[in-house]
Amino acid sequence: MPLLDMKAVRGGYGDADILQGVSITVAEKEIVVIVGPNGAGKSTAMKAVFGLLNVRGGSIVFDGEDITGWAPNRIVQRGICYVPQVDNVFREMTVHENFEMGGFLRKGDLSAAYERVYELFPDLKAKRRNLAGDLSGGQRQMVAMGRALMLDPKLLLLDEPTAGLSPKYMEQIFQITRDVRDAGVSILLVEQHAKQALAFCDRGYVLATGANRHEGTGQALLADREVAEMFLGG
Ligand SMILES: Nc1ncnc2c1ncn2[C@@H]1O[C@H](COP(=O)(O)OP(=O)(O)OP(=O)(O)O)[C@@H](O)[C@H]1O
């Protein structure tokens, strides 16, 4: 059974259905990417998993439990964390304070959790007293990921983590994403950099106009002529 099993989900923000029956699965310790043209519903599909959408059809099962219609705070407690594309750090707080905010919902000694995030993001250890707002875009993205990881999720949702980053930082974020997966966390991410993301993920989905178009391993999607012509710029 996959860790996340989203089946034929329909829904939107208001009355109109943006998602027209989207199905996505994520297995334990798998990196799954959603790609597709602008407005395809990629971010919306991710928001559906996190309880930010009016889901009017289909189901979302996580770790054996039907979480369809649950509120985000309950979903977080169940083991899913979501890193939105923008406004994902507290800019007026230090790196460490951001991590403290991340751990806010957890009880007990968090020293192991801090150790784990600083191990994953060694660059941030030296900048732990710096304001998050003073960091580069790539480092802010790391703060956002680290903050989410403080909650020790089973599944991490990342909405365009490499948006606006240089190729160097994009590679670094991908590498860190692999490290996070190797530490036992499953990852679902939305990416604009489709070719690079498909090359790095385990499996991918191509969405268009709110529906599934293609799915397969990253390598299979990259090798698919129709995917290349229609969605990857030839
Ligand atoms: N908060 C919102 N309220 C109403 N409509 C929205 C909202 N967010 C997105 N939409 C609409 O939902 C559709 C899908 O948007 P979504 O952001 O999921 O696309 P996307 O595939 O992630 O594309 P992009 O790469 O441009 O972010 C678009 O038509 C968009 O205008």
UniProtKB/TrEMBL annotation:
<keyword id="KW-0067">ATP-binding</keyword>
<protein>
    <submittedName>
        <fullName>ABC transporter ATP-binding protein</fullName>
    </submittedName>
</protein>
<keyword id="KW-0029">Amino-acid transport</keyword>
<keyword id="KW-1003">Cell membrane</keyword>
<dbReference type="GO" id="GO:0016887">
    <property type="term" value="F:ATP hydrolysis activity"/>
</dbReference>
<keyword id="KW-0813">Transport</keyword>
<dbReference type="Pfam" id="PF00005">
    <property type="entry name" value="ABC_tran"/>
</dbReference>
<dbReference type="InterPro" id="IPR003439">
    <property type="entry name" value="ABC_transporter-like_ATP-bd"/>
</dbReference>
<keyword id="KW-0472">Membrane</keyword>
<dbReference type="InterPro" id="IPR027417">
    <property type="entry name" value="P-loop_NTPase"/>
</dbReference>
<dbReference type="InterPro" id="IPR017871">
    <property type="entry name" value="ABC_transporter-like_CS"/>
</dbReference>
<dbReference type="InterPro" id="IPR003593">
    <property type="entry name" value="AAA+_ATPase"/>
</dbReference>
<dbReference type="GO" id="GO:0015807">
    <property type="term" value="P:L-amino acid transport"/>
</dbReference>
<comment type="similarity">
    <text>Belongs to the ABC transporter superfamily.</text>
</comment>
<feature type="domain" description="ABC transporter">
    <location>
        <begin position="1"/>
        <end position="234"/>
    </location>
</feature>
<dbReference type="GO" id="GO:0015658">
    <property type="term" value="F:branched-chain amino acid transmembrane transporter activity"/>
</dbReference>
<dbReference type="InterPro" id="IPR052156">
    <property type="entry name" value="BCAA_Transport_ATP-bd_LivF"/>
</dbReference>
<keyword id="KW-0547">Nucleotide-binding</keyword>
<dbReference type="GO" id="GO:0005524">
    <property type="term" value="F:ATP binding"/>
</dbReference>
